[in-house]
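**Entry details**
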Amino acid sequence: MDINLWEIVWVVFAAALFAAYLAFLFIVLIDIFRNESFSGWSRALWVVLLVLLPFLASLAYLFAHGQTMALRTARGSGPDAGAAAVPAPRDPTAQVASANELLRQGAITQEEYERLKRHSLQQASGTLSTDTTPRTPTG
């Protein structure tokens, strides 16, 4: 077996290129399911195209939805990246404790803490419906 340096370099380069291609396909697949404007059928069609013609379908998706793909990636996976990932507890005491913890960590300001506390107390007293959420300056 006679293996020279250039064959090793070529194999490493080809493996890296293939890994990048698989990563790109995975990113396109994730974005297909993040895209809120797609119906179930259009998602299914894109997935079938990615399976049958992966290179052409991924390039077509990039040209068709590349700009919004970048916005969704920058925004995050949810419709509101500023919202907390964990749903707010329904118990007003737990809500105030959670807001106090956020204030202690520096995630919210004193004004936002007071707003959340006031909102929780209004929910507890029944003067506010339970399905409304307090708005922060960014959300």
Remarks:
- Residues 67 and 73 are 10 Å apart (CA to CA).
